[in-house]
Specification:
12 helices; Ribosomal Protein S8, Chain: A, domain 1; alpha/beta; 15% strand; 6-stranded parallel sheet; Rossmann fold; 340 residues; 3-stranded antiparallel sheet; single chain; 39% helix
Length: 340
């Protein structure tokens, strides 16, 4: 199995460059990407220049960013050697986190055991999901290690997406018998009026983000069958009252829009053999003015209880379009504005 080879230390102008040699030219083509777009992304983010010469890449730039580029390129090449693709998300993850994981080829054993000695990743039917920031990595670990986990932070940080992925992984590996996804049916600052159709038609618009996440992880026909069999349920928070949720992976999304009594009701649904995840964004409360958020109360009341993990994200963890992070930072900096 081939690896890149850095040049020995140089003096003078040559000290600003590093040489990487790749034995497999086919993998090098995949590493560079179509029209060298992968190299261009690394150049743009790190402020270096990457030149291709046959089966070699030359990285030019200051020492710190040049070394980061070398480590990023070597980690991405290792992915390709292990038979895994290199996509934009993989480049973003390496640039954010660096090559901190053990052997990228480790695959054996149960998901829960693998976290103790292998990479932090979530396997689903359709894709492999890998954290792209340190906060996401800690969050994924907590989803598998704690029976009750909170994910709190701004939009676009992967709170719900990773929680649903973990639920699907536990379900297909037999750790839980069903998945239950819920949200408060609260309008986001606008009146939608009376929606047509039966109860499912009325609540589905509120639940659509949860359907979108599931569609990323399960084949369409299998997902439809599981929903029909009620092994996967997607329902408004109000529908949880009176139930005991045993042997299930349960997610409450947009928890900042749950009232204190709704949050208490939901948390006390936790049954034997179940795991529960609560996600929310404190800056996007859509409750009527004067009604306290149940998410804030849960933070205050449950922070000292063992076995419950609280995981926090910031704008630095946003994995949507780069402008989303800038927008969040702008609103956070404006103490007189922004969402409640």
């Amino acid at each position: 199995m081939g690896h890149w080879r850095p040049d020995p230390p140089q003096t003078g102008d040559a000290a600003t460059e590093a040489l990487l040699e790749f034995p497999d030219n086919r993998l090098l083509i995949d590493l560079c990407g179509e029209f060298d777009r992968n190299l261009a992304e690394i150049e743009s983010k790190l402020g270096v220049q990457i030149l291709r010469r046959g089966n070699q890449l030359v990285v030019l730039g200051d020492e710190a960013p040049r070394q980061q580029a070398v480590e990023t390129l070597s980690a991405l090449y290792a992915r390709l050697e292990a038979g895994r693709p290199v996509e934009a998300a993989d480049i973003d993850r390496e640039l954010r986190m660096g090559s901190t994981e053990p052997d990228i080829g480790a695959r054996a054993g149960d998901q829960l055991e693998m976290f103790r000695g292998g990479p932090v990743e979530i396997r689903t039917r359709k894709k492999l999901v890998e954290p792209r920031t340190d906060a996401q990595k800690a969050y994924v670990r907590s989803l598998f290690e704690h029976e009750l986990a909170f994910g709190i932070g701004p939009a676009g940080t992967g709170k719900t997406y990773l929680a649903v992925a973990a639920g699907v992984s536990m379900f297909i590996n037999g750790h839980v018998d069903r998945i239950i996804l819920s949200r408060p049916a609260v309008e986001a600052g606008e009146k939608l009026g009376y929606l047509p159709g039966d109860m499912k038609d009325k609540v589905d618009p509120y639940m659509q983000p949860l359907y979108d996440a599931l569609n990323d992880f399960l084949p369409g026909k299998q997902l439809a069958k599981l929903i029909e069999e009620k092994r996967i349920e997607i329902a408004p928070l109000a529908f949880m009252r009176g139930r005991t949720l045993a042997n299930a992976f349960v997610v409450l999304d947009e928890a900042q829009n749950a009232t204190t009594m709704q949050m208490k009701m939901f948390l006390t649904r936790l049954g034997e053999g179940s795991r529960m995840v609560i996600t929310g964004d404190r800056s996007q409360v859509d409750l009527p003015r004067g009604v306290p958020s149940g998410l804030a109360d849960a933070e205050r009341l449950l922070g000292g209880i063992g076995g419950i993990s609280f995981n926090y994200f910031t704008s630095a963890d946003v994995v949507r379009h780069p402008l989303v992070a800038a927008i969040i930072e702008a609103y956070e900096a404006d103490t007189g504005g922004g969402a409640r």
